[in-house]
Structures are given as C-alpha cells and as structure tokens.
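Justification of computing resources. Each target in the renewal requires a structure prediction run like the one illustrated here; the chain below, 536 residues long, is used simply to show the kind of job we budget for.
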Amino acid sequence: MGNVICCFTTSEETKRFPIDTNFEFSSPLPSWPPGQGFANGAIDLGGLQVYQITSFTKIWSGSDETGVTFFEPNQIPDGFSTLGCYCQSSNTELFGWVLAGKDVSGGTLASPVDYTLVLSVSDSCYIWLPTPPEGYNSVGYAVTSSSDKPPLDKIMCVRADLTDECETDVLLWGADDGVNVYSSRPTTRGRQAPGVCVGTFIVEDENNTNSIISCLKNNNFDTLSSTMPNLAQITALVQEYSPRLYFHPSETYLPSSTKWYFSNGVLLYQSGDESNPIRVDPTGSNLPQGGSDDGTYWLDLPTDETERERVKKGDLESCEVYIHIKPMLGATFTDIAIWIFYPFNGPATAKIGLIDVPLGKIGEHIGDWEHFTLRVSNFNGVLYRVYFSQHSGGTWVETPSLEFQNGTNNFVAYSSLHGHATYPSPGVVFQGTNVIGIRNDTAKSDMFLDVGTTYSIMAAEYNDSIIEPSWLNYTRKWGPKITYKIGVELEKLEESSLAIVESVSESLLEILPIEVYEEDGPTGPKMKDNWDGDER
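Resulting structure tokens:
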C-alpha cells in the first residue's frame, strides 16, 4: 500500500508522521501449507507459551520526525499477559511486534512487586521498569501517559530459567539528558542459541544503569523442528518473498551455478604438487571434504587464457542460488540465507574527491560468494527484515523500507558493479570516507536474476531430508591468493592520473579496506561465521 502520512499538531508547527499507518504488503499473504508448528500463532518455550502481538495503542509520539513513538500492545488473546511495551521510529510506518506470555505449566509468570520510573518525557510519557519478585526477571517496560505508577498486573515478569541475557541493538532515540532508547536482542544469537527476542526496547543512561531487562529463552529448543517450516512451507516462503536481483548495466562478471563453473575446466590445486592440478567434477564430488582452511588446497580457473576469461564472466542463464534455512532467536524466526556464486570479482574503483580512479587489479579475486538473508517470523510467516551483505559487513533493512516489485511481495535487491555487494536501493555507496573510498555502484538493467525461479535448498540442519551438496563441505579457498602492492598497481594507471595517485597513495593505504589489497579466493558459505551465527 502507499505510505499514508498522518498529521500531528504541536505548539511550533504541524509535523508529519507515517507512524499512524500500519505497513501492509502489496499482496495479501497466503495461507501457508500445513505443517507441525510453523505459523500456528503461538510457540511453547517450555511451560511458557508466547504469542506475537502486532496490534498497538499509541501512548506518546515525539515532536519531530527524528523522534520515536511508544505503544502499548492490544488485542491480546485470552489467557495471555503483556510482557512489555513497544517503541519504534516515528518516521516509518508501524510494523512492529512484541511477545505476550501465557503460563501453561504453573509459576512461569508473576506480577512485579513495584515499578521504578526510568524516563519521563514532556509530562505526558512515563517509562516504568518493573521490579520482579525473587526468582523472576523483567523482560520489558510499562509505558503510561500519567505519572501514577501502573497497576502491578499491567506487566508480567518471567521466571528466571526462561530468560536469557539481552543487549542493545539499534539506537531509536537519544534524549537530551543522556538517556537513550534502543531496540533489544539476545546477547548470544545463532542457529543453536536459545535466546528469544521479546520485541521490547531498552532504556539506558550513560552509566548503563537501566539496561537490566532480560530476553526470553526457549527451553524447548531441542524440539525446534516443530516450529520451523517444512519443505512445502519453505517453498511457499521463497516464492512469496524471494527478490529480483539486478546487476549493473556495465557488469562484466555475472554469477553462475556451481555445476556450470566446475563443468568449465575449474582446477583443484594442492600445495607441494602445484604442477598436477585435478579437474573438478561437475558436482564437486572429488573436492576434499572437511578440515580447515589451511592453505593445502585451492581452486583456480582453466589455464587456457581464452577459457579463463570466458569463465570469469559467469553464465547468468545457468545460474541458481543456494539457500540455507536456519532457526534464529530461539527458533521463533527462520533465516532464509540466499547465497550467490560469482566465478570472478572484478577490479575496484576509488573515488578521490570528485575524480574516479580505477585501481588496476586491486579488488580482483577468483571465486566470490555473496548473500542476503530474509528473516521470517515462525509465529505467522511474516517477513520482518532483510540483511544485505556488503564486503566484510552488511546492513539490516526493515520490511517497510524495502523496494517491492509492483503488486507482489517480492522485493528488489541490487548487486554492486564488479564487487557484487548487495544493496536495497540503486545509487552509489562509498566504502571508506567521503574524501577517499571505494565506489559501490548499483542500478537496474536488463540483467537480473529472479531468485524464486532458480534456487536449490543446500542445507537445513534441522531437516534430515535435505542432502547437502559435496562442494558445501569443501573448506578451502575457491580461488588462489595473490597479494598486490597497491603502489605498483596505481603506477599502471594512465599518465593523466599519476599526479593524483602520487598525492593520495599514502591515504589510500590507510583508508581502503584490507580485502582490496590482495586477490584471495573466499571460502565457501559453510566457513562463514554467519553460517552458525547471526549476521554481522
């Protein structure tokens, strides 16, 4: 739907907010295929049943578009209790959630014994930290429009064995008195971590004295397959949300399938026997399995120069993406990690002031694995966030901020020119500073990949029916390592650029990311820290 703007009147001027409008997908979400526990509304954490609340009553909103709005959950199902209130930025449509809890075993919930006022704003917004009884922890705050303490049964505390440590996530609001409001998340996150995000916020002063709430913990984590999507549900999720990935109009180095790559003369080298490389089987079945990235083996392109240049360019027609399905946030969410293989990562371009400077071979490497990740709620199958990987880091984007294809719930992503980092919108992003940095250019073109039509599920550890391909357990480099001297490469530039190069070479050495200094083939997806852990 369109972004409807609601108006608020203050003593200064009329302010405009989208916060009073709920985000809606372009197309109604389907009824997901039947399964054991995925998208069934409630999840049992081990005697404590939780339900994702997405309906709210606004309590207070900031006076400018950089402020926040505090909400109280409503439409709570019978038998469930509020665990905390919700907060989000005022300049986006409402698209949030908090968990409510229901005691189904006895003693998992208890009323606080008191409240402590931790923040008051404009004499119309009061944030209260519940004081839990012994053996219980608070997992959220109460928010009121009155200075009177809330009733003791307004917020429930959770038995300590069902809680885990949490930490601040995204800064939502910085108050003038040094008190900040953040979203919250479990401190330990990953596909084997039981910490559950409650969806509430954290109020923290400069001494961190107020950040003493907890997150929840899934004590039924050993039965996580009951809340995770089955194969039919995974297929439906991919079809519903999978993106169209656009490549830059000037892109030379496109992706391919691993089968196409191996079938076109890719060679396996072994340290100490470099003169006798082995041609890789199309399925990767003859790649060494297991071990560590110890430099013993690596892959390289065909030795024939013509074939080498051809394979570098990839083959978009044969391309398929590879999907890893994993539980996150205590199996209350599913991460759909979509991996894309490029035979070659092209050279980088620096921007120095107003001038673009090609960096020769700097930034090139053979074999390039990139990914983005969809985070879907296991309560209802709703896509809440997408992670776009960008070199050694990346960024989370909330669903309302995504670009969608017309009339669908399939979002749009962009692959940067030569470097293949993924971005949610077209344009130029600089890696470095606003004076000297690496260009990351993205734009729409006639070259694109519709992920939902060209994928295979390569791994889902909770589902024994999914067989991992042989190449996934190849733990060494997908390309050789060649270290470049940046000064030597810069000297190869056109004569007209030499004056610029001489003046900025030292600055480039200090500022440019270390990965552009060498051609070093990456390891495969399973060797990345986000395979088992959360995104960076």
